Design the sequence.
């Protein structure tokens, strides 16, 4: 298989019912059977080109799933109604009562909350670790551990998970490495580097237009089939089904993902470099000053850059808050959560996307109240955008 994900997606062609260049959208919740035998077969195994009920799969969801498998280079994939739907279904498919997860401590707040607060209801325990400390990870793995979970580029501190080394640890212990690659589609080939299973919030960069919520799990055919099992598949029984109309729009948007990721990354690198020169504390893996710059450089597909996420330290919550309002007024972008939009989005992680993490734990991992996370947009004139940001920083006293 060609290693460039852009080529894999470009080579994935699906014809619609009438030879359309966009596959036809099936506007149906259920599908008819031509024989009793075929119905019985579909309830026990998958049959290519046959569908039984849209909660299990639908033609458009199948097409999008195959495009995502092409993106990540996996045998198969399955799309769901949200990134959290994908993450929770994936982990609940692997873990049972009494099992344990070893997870990075710096992850999306919703993921942290489901592991810390919700999974214990089902007897599933999570041990949170510094994902850059391999010895700590090893020390937390025991006979009950089933998963190592991490984000390729962590939210919001942009720490880098060494997927090659984590895969070695996982294989030595006979457990699964599950990687959230939401921040770095195309940038980091997570599956190629060692992930057994790759999860995405498609809401973000993959879709890119902030008009829907969706998620995906990418892995081998055996695991994806288990997720969809009518008997014990988490994705089938919990019901996180993605609407076919949304699948169609995401599939169309994926065709420009390679172009968008290049621009997001280019803009992020420019802004990060200029802010660092101006004396701002910047977290961006593309900067040589990032403690894991060499590691991420060895992991990325260089033509797609270092992704479009930047975090800065505005020193305190009041300054960070003022800065974000000023930037919105200056039309730099939007003071809003999420990421991957055509326009720059900025938020204060401690009080938004990471607010589920207790303050004392935020402080322990270095997440201060003054952090501002940027998802860089597709600005055509990044120098003008940077100048506006600098002006806002001067107005709020962050720069002289």
Sequence:
């Amino acid at each position: 298989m060609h290693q460039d994900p852009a080529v894999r997606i470009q080579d994935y062609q699906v014809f619609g019912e009438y030879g359309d260049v966009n596959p036809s959208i099936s506007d149906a919740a259920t599908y008819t059977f031509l024989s009793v035998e075929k119905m019985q077969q579909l309830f026990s195994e998958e049959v290519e080109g046959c569908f039984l009920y849209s909660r299990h799969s639908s033609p458009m969801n199948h097409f999008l799933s195959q495009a995502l498998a092409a993106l990540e280079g996996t045998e198969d994939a399955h799309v769901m109604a949200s990134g959290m739907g994908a993450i929770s279904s994936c982990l609940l498919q692997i873990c049972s009562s009494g099992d344990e997860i070893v997870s990075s401590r710096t992850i999306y707040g919703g993921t942290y909350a489901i592991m810390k607060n919700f999974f214990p209801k089902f007897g599933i325990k999570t041990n949170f670790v510094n994902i850059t400390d391999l010895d700590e990870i090893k020390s937390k793995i025991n006979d009950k551990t089933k998963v190592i979970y991490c984000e390729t580029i962590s939210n919001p501190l942009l720490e880098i998970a060494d997927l090659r080394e984590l895969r070695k640890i996982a294989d030595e212990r006979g457990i699964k490495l599950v990687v959230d690659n939401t921040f770095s589609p195309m940038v980091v080939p997570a599956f190629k580097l060692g992930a057994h299973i790759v999860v995405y919030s498609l809401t973000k960069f993959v879709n890119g237009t902030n008009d829907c919520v969706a998620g995906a799990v990418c892995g081998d055919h055996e695991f994806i089939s288990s997720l969809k099992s009518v008997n014990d598949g988490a994705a089938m029984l919990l019901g996180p089904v993605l609407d076919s109309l949304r699948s169609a729009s995401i599939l169309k948007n994926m065709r420009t993902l390679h172009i968008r990721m290049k621009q997001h990354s280019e803009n992020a690198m420019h802004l990060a470099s200029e802010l660092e020169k101006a004396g701002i504390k910047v977290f961006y893996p593309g900067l040589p000053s990032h403690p894991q710059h060499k590691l991420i450089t060895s992991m990325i597909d260089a033509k797609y850059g270092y992704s479009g996420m930047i975090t800065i330290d505005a020193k305190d919550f009041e300054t960070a808050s003022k800065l974000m309002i000023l930037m919105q007024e200056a039309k730099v972008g939007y003071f809003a959560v999420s990421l991957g939009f055509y326009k720059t989005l900025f938020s204060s992680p401690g009080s938004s996307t990471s607010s589920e993490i207790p303050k004392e734990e935020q402080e322990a991992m270095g997440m201060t109240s003054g952090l501002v996370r940027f998802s860089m947009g597709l600005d055509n004139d990044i120098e003008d955008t940077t100048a506006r940001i600098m002006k806002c920083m001067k107005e709020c006293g962050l720069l002289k």
